[in-house]
From TrEMBL:
GO MF entry, a single one: oxidoreductase activity, acting on the CH-OH group of donors, NAD or NADP as acceptor
InterPro entries xref list: NAD(P)-bd_dom_sf (IPR036291), SDR_enzymes (IPR052184), SDR_fam (IPR002347)
Gene3D superfamilies for this protein: NAD(P)-binding Rossmann-like Domain
UniProt source species: Methylotenera versatilis (strain 301)
Taxonomic lineage from the root: Bacteria, Pseudomonadati, Pseudomonadota, Betaproteobacteria, Nitrosomonadales
CDD domains: carb_red_sniffer_like_SDR_c (cd05325)
Name of the protein described by the UniProt record: Short-chain dehydrogenase/reductase SDR
């Protein structure tokens, strides 16, 4: 059985590493990115792995999400990974409203748009899983340092969105997990981050592998530990 995974923001960082690891393991990878022409690292990876298909998708453009779902209507998606995300800087007195609305669109609303547009593809698949990259920074319980209004609130929002989704798609046999990847060395995480993408993604893939209807609707870190909302 060959499984198929769809990954958003697959051109760099954590998304690129997901693409590499799943392709290496023989999965078919639908690697989505908003600028395939300039996705050099992903293009190079696809040259080595014939099971990677690069697809154009800006997740902030909901019409594009629907169009892609239609284009792939005869295909199954075993695992949907909502990975694309943005981190606009913000602090008390300095949180740009447009940045905030854009971040909500990308970090909070797009994951649900993806899940709804691809529900049939996922429900028809063997594994039936949706995984969304959130962040511990979206955890109420973990917030002891304040700040980062935009990023934190968009990740808190996606946590709730995914919780509701987990309940609503349970009858279709689809399991949902919200993920914290750790503090990871990427453009977003920066070079001081604690772990590399390889370690993070290996852990996240294990969490996704262990996801099923009995543990759906949880918020889990790359090391398998559950995170308090
Ligand atoms: P990067 O900044 O390295 O990469 C972000 C990815 O998201 C890029 O591929 C980017 O594409 C893509 N993206 C952004 N906006 C859009 C859009 N509108 N449409 C399609 N793709 C888009 O981030 P990471 O790899 O570090 O993060 C991946 C996920 O993990 C994010 O959701 C992030 O919030 C989360 N996370 C990361 C942590 C870390 O320490 N790194 C910690 C906690 C959570 P493009 O190249 O076109 O900009």
């Amino acid at each position: 059985m060959t499984y198929q995974v769809l990954i958003t923001g697959a051109n760099r960082g954590i998304g690129l590493e997901f693409t590499q690891q799943y392709a290496q393991d023989g999965w078919n990878v639908l690697a989505c990115c908003r600028d395939p022409q300039h996705a050099g690292a992903l293009q190079a990876l696809a040259k080595v792995h014939a099971n990677i298909r690069i697809l154009h998708l800006d997740v902030a453009d909901f019409a594009q999400i629907d169009a892609l779902a239609l284009q792939l209507k005869n295909e199954k998606v075993d695992v949907l990974i909502n990975n694309a995300g943005v981190y606009p800087e913000s602090s008390l007195g300095d949180a740009d409203t447009n940045d905030w609305l854009d971040a909500f669109k990308i970090n909070s609303i797009a994951p649900l748009k993806m899940a709804t547009a691809f529900t049939a593809h996922i429900a028809n698949s063997e594994l039936k899983k949706i995984a969304t990259l959130s962040s511990k920074m979206g955890s109420m319980s973990d917030n002891t340092s304040g700040g980062s209004y935009i990023y934190r609130s968009t990740k808190t929002a996606v946590n709730m969105v995914m919780k509701s989704l987990s309940i609503d798609v349970q009858a279709a046999g689809i399991a949902v997990v919200t993920l914290h990847p750790g503090w990871v060395q990427t453009d977003m995480g920066g070079s001081n981050a604690l772990i590399d993408t390889k370690t993070s993604v290996a852990g996240l893939r294990k969490v996704i592998e262990e996801l099923n209807l009995s543990n759906t609707g949880k918020f889990i870190a790359y090391d398998g530990k559950e995170i308090a909302w």
